[in-house]
Amino acid sequence: MKTPRIGFVSLGCPKALVDSERILTKLRAEGYSLVSTYKDADLVVVNTCGFIDAAVEESLEAVGEALKENGKVVVTGCLGVRENEIRERHPQVLKITGAHAYEEVVEAVHEHLPPLHDPFVDLVPPEGIRLTPRHYAYLKISEGCNHRCTFCIIPSLRGDLASRPIGEVMDEAERLVSAGVKELLVVSQDTSAYGVDLKYRTGFWGGRPLKTRFYDLAKALGELGIWVRMHYVYPYPHVDEVVPLMAEGKILPYLDIPFQHASTRILKSMKRPVATEDVLARIALWRSICPEIALRSTFIVGFPGETDADFEQLLEFLQAARLDRVGCFTYSPVKGAAANELPNPVPESVKEERLARFMGVQARISADRLQSKIGKRETILVDEVVDEGAVARSRADAPEIDGQVFIDGATHLKVGDWAEVIFEDADDHDLWAVPAS
Ligand code: SF4
């Protein structure tokens, strides 16, 4: 009998990628095989993103392409909550489910492409199926979010914060490390809130009690002997507690904290924490505890009501904070977001002009910060080896979103190797290095 074959399209953020990995792990465990072309698949699952309008359009197009090329399509992911919109454009879709509805997706696949049951064959490695390279993996610690930022619809798509028990998270982390993972990227919508919903309940890892709490998780992950990188950390005061773990080398000296803006007026209207002076003081504190800490953040320019003065305040913050890595987006209305009702939208041309100014200022800061690394020795992690040499990342660089380190001629290195290098040159975003002797 022929093995049923699944095609899978995974769109969106790392959290959606983790959902895709869970669904694939389950299907693979049931004997489905995974194929990489529409024509080889018996059915295609599309995991969609609904975060901004461009992502919605990309998702709808991906569903259309899968239908055209294959015909049997199950849709899941964030866009799934907007079922009518999908059905309107693609009425032939077999089933639509929302985000992290693993069971429902698997049931839909069973209904339209029954599994071949073979209980004697273990087809799945213990760490599950992963879509990232072998040497790094995303570790999702919770779903949903208790905040209600006015530009965001994630809480309506994914619900309130629901943390995974710490024992389960640590078991998964251990399995990943045993499978060769060298770097764990901790993701969620709000990593620092981990465990709030469970009232920091005590769980167990290897028989040892651990609280379901950001600090305890960071500390336990720090014992695994690999790189641990914290993403999507909300600037709560208790974040200060994990910085000493970075200074001690237990977890990477890296914090990804989306500040979004620096004007009190705009932060209030975004429903974000407002004390910008506190943020600057906190950054100074973190740097005093762990001087090598790399700070990454994201911002939105052109939010409704943003005046020239608000924008100047944002630039001043940027100059004062001197962050290492920064992403910036122009505000774009997301269907269903409360911010759509706010008065005084900023014209597109002004948004674009502010974005260009913002990125210009940050490029100079980033270039300066990278220049200060020249001559320093550091450990890097190799992501790719090409004809010209190795492409790696430093401790300050997350995959996909930050810079890279190029080591010309170092073709003796292998993907997933840690290596000692000395930084020799830099541009605005990337570094060049030579192997340390
Ligand atoms: S913190 Fe704000 S932006 Fe982030 S997921 Fe929660 S509501 Fe959305």
Automatic annotation (TrEMBL):
InterPro entries xref list: Elp3/MiaA/NifB-like_rSAM (IPR006638), Methylthiotransferase (IPR005839), Methylthiotransferase_CS (IPR020612), Methylthiotransferase_N (IPR013848), Methylthiotransferase_N_sf (IPR038135), NA-bd_OB-fold (IPR012340), Ribosomal_uS12_MeSTrfase_RimO (IPR005840), rSAM (IPR007197)
Residues the record lists as binding [4Fe-4S] cluster 1: C13, C49, C78
GO biological process, one term: tRNA modification
GO cellular component: cytosol
Pfam families, per database record: Radical_SAM, TRAM_2, UPF0004
Binding of [4Fe-4S] cluster 2, residues: C145, C149, C152
MF terms (GO), sorted A to Z: 4 iron, 4 sulfur cluster binding; aspartic acid methylthiotransferase activity; metal ion binding; protein methylthiotransferase activity
Cofactor(s) demanded: [4Fe-4S] cluster
Domain MTTase N-terminal: 4-114
Catalysis: reaction(s): L-aspartate(89)-[ribosomal protein uS12]-hydrogen + (sulfur carrier)-SH + AH2 + 2 S-adenosyl-L-methionine = 3-methylsulfanyl-L-aspartate(89)-[ribosomal protein uS12]-hydrogen + (sulfur carrier)-H + 5'-deoxyadenosine + L-methionine + A + S-adenosyl-L-homocysteine + 2 H(+)
UniProt keyword list: 4Fe-4S, Cytoplasm, Iron, Iron-sulfur, Metal-binding, S-adenosyl-L-methionine, Transferase
Textual note on the cofactor: Binds 2 [4Fe-4S] clusters. One cluster is coordinated with 3 cysteines and an exchangeable S-adenosyl-L-methionine.
EC number: 2.8.4.4
Family annotation (CDD domains): Radical_SAM
Subcellular localization, as worded in the UniProt entry: Cytoplasm
Radical SAM core domain location: 131-368
Function, in words: Catalyzes the methylthiolation of an aspartic acid residue of ribosomal protein uS12.
NCBIfam families attached to this UniProt entry: 30S ribosomal protein S12 methylthiotransferase RimO (TIGR01125), MiaB/RimO family radical SAM methylthiotransferase (TIGR00089)
Family: Belongs to the methylthiotransferase family. RimO subfamily.
Record protein name field: Ribosomal protein uS12 methylthiotransferase RimO
Gene encoding the protein: rimO
